[in-house]
């Protein structure tokens, strides 16, 4: 199913971007360029930084605090691009003021805060949306369509690799830094969202940084499939790749190959069942394996900026009063898997997602 923002003419919605650091400028630029939005203000404690961003995005107002923003400016919505530990307080203040809220990943610093945000927005009748930008890329939208149409058949496994020579973050490990991208993609493309049976994480800290710099995340799914995510700050090569194996076809997404981001392989293993009978034993199941070698094709992809589509979808969701494709509930599922991964690392065993499922106390 493709995202199709409404195209009818509406008055522009008024928005403020909170946070002018790493991600805020990208949001501000796209809101300023969108016909759906009027960028009213940039909010940041660093007024010099906020002013510099304002000069690049049409000279919106510059304010130093969320309190001043909500008190002095007429806005419909906010976009939060601040550290995760601040998301809850800012979002709750905005929701209490009747504003719609867009939050960069992750939704919050813990699932308790995330759930409070989701419930507050529901009670207030406002839209809470997560900026899971990858979900609005042409490749991921096409993958979602292919899975929904049954093109790949039943999903058997998913392997995702996101590695590079990256900056060791001061406040989070490699799971919380990189895995939200892959988890949000899986939640977006899998019918019914990401609901693993259990979560098992293994991490390594060869730099003695006090946090995992290399990580492997295993997520058994309800249909017996296995999703596996590899994240790494220490790789000299950058790889952004996902392989989705189905009973009919296999899809490979190479995000760093602009000439052929998606490839669909009509190749795989066919497992046919037959009865194998021996004179001295009871009838038993035997397996006959054959290999399928078919064509490979590359789906055509549209070209557009994912953030541009995301801000348009944010406006469409507000106007229609419907949940966004990456709504608070989807962001909460991602957040809960990250928490389960942290528990698995601490306990040395698999755990079950406490938000979506009861806790599983036994190791796999």
UniProtKB/TrEMBL annotation:
GO terms for molecular function: nucleotide binding. Transmembrane segments: none annotated. The keyword NAD applies. Residues 141-251 form the GFO/IDH/MocA-like oxidoreductase domain. SUPFAM superfamilies: Glyceraldehyde-3-phosphate dehydrogenase-like, C-terminal domain (SSF55347), NAD(P)-binding Rossmann-fold domains (SSF51735). Keywords: NAD. Pfam families: GFO_IDH_MocA, GFO_IDH_MocA_C3. Residues 13-132 form the Gfo/Idh/MocA-like oxidoreductase N-terminal domain. This is Oxidoreductase, Gfo/Idh/MocA family. It comes from Arthrobacter rhombi. The lineage of its organism: Bacteria, Bacillati, Actinomycetota, Actinomycetes, Micrococcales.
């Amino acid at each position: 199913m493709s995202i199709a923002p409404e195209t009818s003419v509406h008055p522009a919605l008024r928005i403020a971007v909170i946070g002018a650091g790493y991600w805020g400028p990208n949001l501000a630029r796209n809101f300023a360029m969108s016909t759906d939005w009027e960028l009213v203000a940039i909010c940041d404690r660093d007024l010099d930084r906020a002013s510099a961003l304002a000069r690049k995005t049409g000279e919106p107002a510059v304010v130093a605090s969320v309190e001043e923003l909500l008190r002095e400016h007429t806005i419909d919505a906010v976009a939060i691009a601040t550290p995760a530990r601040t998301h809850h307080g800012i979002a709750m203040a905005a929701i209490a003021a009747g504003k719609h809220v867009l939050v960069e990943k992750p939704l919050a610093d813990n699932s308790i805060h995330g759930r409070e945000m989701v419930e507050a927005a529901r009670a207030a009748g406002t839209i809470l949306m997560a900026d899971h930008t990858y979900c609005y890329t042409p490749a991921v939208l096409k993958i979602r369509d292919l899975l929904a149409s049954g093109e790949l058949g039943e999903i058997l496994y998913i392997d995702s690799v996101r590695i590079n020579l990256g900056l060791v973050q001061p406040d989070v490990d490699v799971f919380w830094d990189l895995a939200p991208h892959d988890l949000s993609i899986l939640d977006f493309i899998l019918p019914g969202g990401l609901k693993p049976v259990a979560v098992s994480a293994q991490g390594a800290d060869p730099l003695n940084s006090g946090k995992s710099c290399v990580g492997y995340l295993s997520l058994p799914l309800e249909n017996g499939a296995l999703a596996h995510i590899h994240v790494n700050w220490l790789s000299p090569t950058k790889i952004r790749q996902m392989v989705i194996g189905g009973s009919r076809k296999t899809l490979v997404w190479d995000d760093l190959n602009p000439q052929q981001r998606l490839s669909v392989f009509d190749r795989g293993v066919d497992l046919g069942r037959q009865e194998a009978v021996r004179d001295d034993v009871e009838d038993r199941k035997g397996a006959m394996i054959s290999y399928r070698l078919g064509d490979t094709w590359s789906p055509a992809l549209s070209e557009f900026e994912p953030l541009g589509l995301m801000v348009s979808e944010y406006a469409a969701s507000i106007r229609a009063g419907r949940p966004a494709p990456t709504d608070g509930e989807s962001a909460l599922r991602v957040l809960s898997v990250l928490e389960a991964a942290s528990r698995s690392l601490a306990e040395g065993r698999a755990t079950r997602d406490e938000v979506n499922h009861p806790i599983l106390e036994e190791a796999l």
